[in-house]
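Data availability (excerpt). The following record was deposited with the supplementary files.
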Amino acid sequence: MRKFLNDPRATVREMLEGLADCSPGLALLAEEGVILRAGLPAFAERREVAVISGGGAGHEPAHAGYVGPGLLHAAVAGDVFTSPPVDAVLAAVRAVAGPPGALLIVKNYTGDRLNFGLAAELARAEGIPCEVAVVADDVALAGTVEPARRRGIAGTVLVHKVAGAAAAAGLSLDAVAAEVRAAAAALGSMGVALGACTVPAAGKPGFNLPEGEMELGLGIHGEAGVARVPLAPARDIAATLLDRITAEMALPGGTPVALLVNGLGGTPPMELALMTREALSGLRARGVPVARAWCGTLLSALEMPGCSFSLMAVDEARLARLDAPASAPAWPGGGSIPEARATVAAAEAPPHPWTGAADPAIRAAVLAVASALEGAEARLTALDAATGDGDLGLSLARGAAALRALPEGAFADAPTALSAMAGTLRRAIAGSSGPFYATALLRAARALPARPAPADWASALEAAADAITELGGAQPGDRTMLDALRPAATAFRAALPGGGAAALSAGARAAAEGAAATASMRPRLGRASYLGERALGHTDAGAAAIAAWMAALEEAVSSR
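Predicted structure:
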């Protein structure tokens, strides 16, 4: 078991202390596992109906995360997945309730019902009006147990919101309790898990789940579900949950709902957002209007990977409770959603001027580069795999295919060709190489006249190297593509007195020598830098690619 713990027996108290330490609106009740609102009216007569919830720890951010104005007045935490003791619940009632009394919201588990129920009875004996509202929203047990015996799960968060808003509106205890019980009755939830969680005191997962399977219809205490089924695509999982929930709720046609997509602790936001997409799409396809929706980890089961859907039927009055102002550390707020997903059309790129005939020499040179990159694919893949992620060979081969597909007009003159190459390589080459090549080619294109002389090509090579330095921050000696390109540009200019062909030949030799030298360089940038000295002895793949196409250009020019 790997968890951030001190003493497992002290975990809950230390967790509550950490929450109170970073939440100015919360206070921790001395000697009890109770979080309550800080700054409640000192005169109990001025207090509204107190709303109290809780249960075993391990469901964070519930329940303490929902203590605040417009939500709970106090939350009581027991040991992990264990109902809090009666005395802790009673202490919470005494701490936050005034003459209007208190409402205890209880999820439908035997321990919670017994301990909260007895605490309510003791409070009444002390003269504190007290009511209990039970949440039993888990439809997974339909046909197995009667509705009154179903578990309470994530939909309880929405019940907290209704209760807190009703209390803040100044309603009496009986009226708040009536609204809350009606909201709980209008609620249906169901969950699915892709793995187990580990209770700190147990030290091992609660169950073993083979690869390719999932638990359907589980509670929130690390237990297995009502059925173990094959893992399915997200859309199919969402459809199963929605079918079960809507069938059990038997909503009249057109009844709007509030939707809660809840993570069980180990599900990343990416997957929860995807499941929310499927839930909204599925509900709309079923003709169920969604008035409000929330997505996030709002009531967890420690680190369990999984999620649940909760639907609450709403009318204008209940919607007003969900919309009422509220502030608590974990309350996500809002809930308003658009009627349909907003999409904005991407601005179209300006039309390219690629018309007319190609310059044969330019086209031949570009095709020679494409052939060199295709021929070097296997070697570049091997070099990149030794110190990176191994995708450079394939990426540059895709780039070569894109160069071959350019229309004739793209080769009309040198600046046009380099600009066209920049655009197509930007889209075709994955990873960092695409932006580097595109930026270098664009900068080089701006350095060239329509009919460049050898000195203009020298300036273009230098401009390309400068662009890569500015974009990525690399310098010669950092073991990157620049260790081949910069020497090539320097050698090209130095050899200009001998003519363009001689300059290109010198540049190609310098690129090859620079690429070879990278094998003895300690990498300072890119993925290879993570390997440190382990990269020594391997030529940098990006530099090798520069050397390959420089050699192809030399051969294409010399053969004319």
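Summary of structural features: DSSP finds 17 helices and twelve strands in the chain.
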